[in-house]
Design goal:
mainly alpha; single chain
Length: 82
């Protein structure tokens, strides 16, 4: 089993961390551990989008917490023929 890097998730403000985990759980109907894994995994992609001319704000910003769950919902809808 791979060790999880909890640092990137801990870097989010506590309220933002709770909000995004709850939203990802609700959108995808997954457990908190899976939601945390998805949020941590998104960090490099989100950072790259920020560096690419400000496509998004920083991961610690409110935009991540509001948009990331919607991105996952969009991906899921396409994956299941939505």
């Amino acid at each position: 089993m791979l060790a999880m890097d909890r640092g990137s998730l801990v870097d989010l403000p506590a309220d933002s961390r709770r909000e995004i985990i709850a939203d990802v759980c609700a959108v995808l109907d997954v457990e908190a551990a899976t939601a945390e894994d998805l949020v941590r995994s998104a960090e490099p992609f989100w950072d790259a989008m920020e560096r690419a001319g400000g496509l998004v704000d920083s991961r610690g910003g409110g935009e991540f917490c509001h948009i990331f769950p919607r991105v996952l919902a969009f991906i899921r809808s396409g994956a299941v023929g939505g």
